[in-house]
Design goal:
The chain is α/β, with parallel strands linked by helices. It folds into two domains: 6-121, 3-Layer(aba) Sandwich (Rossmann fold), CATH 3.40.50.2300; 147-357, Hypothetical protein af1432. It has 17 helices and five strands. It has a five-stranded parallel beta sheet with strand order 2-1-3-4-5, sandwiched between helices.
Length: 366
């Protein structure tokens, strides 16, 4: 991985710059050095580096400002900051600006190299996902000329590639699409409309391809300006989906999956039945999965706890009619749907797909 990777080391201490340059060069990196933030910006503007390893405390421009300017110019750059002061607030601020890691001096070279490689892998993974998402509309438009069934086949194939990058998010999306499909069926939707709900749920967060890495990866709270950028992912996702014939209902789910029954959602602040039924179904299915499955900061709650929370928010966040249908579905059926979501397209669950039904068709979670 080190071969050919370009690194810009920024530090106002000559000894540190020289040692880091020698070590990185011996390992096959293309390493340049800058004695301060201003010099680093000039060098970066002339020739961007894949990685910037910068000290925080420098006389002319601190590392936080270097991070902000670097990522404004080139969001795909992996920025790693280093400092001799253990300042938690500064570390949090660095992550909020989009820095990939924060190293405390003194550190050994192995630690620095590991941090840099991890930062680059994360950036590359996000960029690859973004490229796939941006290509998805073109791919779906092309295959739709031949067959509605092939579109859904392509959608499922695309969603499965996410497992290679983020298994947790991938599993969540697959479960929610299965839950939404089950709930749609219990609501009395026909097979074609149910499939639209499933596809809309599967690709609800497709618009996040347009969100910059420094916002999407931000460790702390977003600023109001950053929230404005983040919220635009629903319109971006709708534009991607709406241009594909036959996926109009799925596109509406993508656009409205952050609306709330009481009008407190976005992007349009729609209320009650003005929100499409598919998005109202998605809201309950998404929340049920989020409540009952583990997150990094908490353990998943029980089915009973999830039902209690969804009932509490009925008429506020959720459509009461959808909630009533949800409550009538036995726990065993929800668990069966979760198991079903893990089947590959050529496994037992494929019988539910549009391909096997031979129908003609009419959230990754934020």
């Amino acid at each position: 991985m080190s071969e050919g990777m370009s690194i810009l080391v920024v530090d106002d201490e000559p000894g540190i710059r020289e040692v880091m340059a020698q070590l990185f060069s011996k390992r096959g990196y293309q390493c340049r050095t800058a004695e301060g933030g201003q010099a680093a910006m000039r060098m970066f503007q002339e020739s961007p580096s894949q990685v910037v390893l910068s000290d925080v405390h420098m006389a002319d421009m601190d590392g936080l400002e270097v991070t902000r300017r670097i990522l404004d110019l080139h969001p795909g750059t992996a920025v790693v900051l280093m400092t001799g002061n253990a300042d938690l607030e500064m570390a949090i601020q660095a992550m909020r600006l989009g820095a990939s890691d924060f190293l405390l001096k003194p550190f050994d070279f192995k630690t620095a190299e590991s941090s840099i490689q991890g930062a680059v892998q994360k950036k590359q993974g996000l960029q690859a996902t973004g490229r796939e998402l941006r290509k998805l509309q073109e791919q779906l438009q092309e295959v739709f000329r031949h067959s509605h069934a092939i579109v859904v086949h392509a959608v499922e194939s695309f969603s499965e590639t996410l497992a290679m990058r983020d298994v947790e998010t991938y599993d969540h999306v697959r479960r929610v699409s299965s839950f939404a499909s089950l709930l749609a069926r219990k609501m009395g939707l026909d097979a074609s409309d149910e499939e639209q709900v499933r596809v809309g749920a599967l690709l609800h967060d497709i618009g996040k391809a347009v969100v910059p890495d420094r916002i999407l990866l931000k460790a702390g709270s977003l600023t109001e300006e950053e929230w404005e950028v983040m919220r635009r992912h629903v319109q971006a996702g709708h534009r991607i989906m709406a241009g594909i014939p036959g996926l109009g209902q799925a596109a509406q789910i993508v656009l409205q999956h952050h609306e709330r029954y009481d009008g407190g959602g976005y992007p349009q602040g729609l209320r009650k039945e003005r929100i499409c039924l598919g998005a109202r179904i998605f809201g309950v299915a998404d929340s049920y999965d989020a409540i009952t499955h583990d997150r990094p900061y908490r353990k998943g709650a029980s089915d009973a706890a999830a039902r209690e929370e969804i009932v509490r928010c009925s008429g506020i966040q959720y459509d009461p009619a959808v909630v009533q249908t949800f409550l009538q579905i036995p726990v065993g059926e929800w668990k069966q749907a979760a198991v079903f979501s893990r089947y590959p397209r050529n496994g037992p669950g494929f019988g539910k797909s549009l391909v096997s039904r031979n129908l003609s068709m009419p959230r990754m979670t934020a």
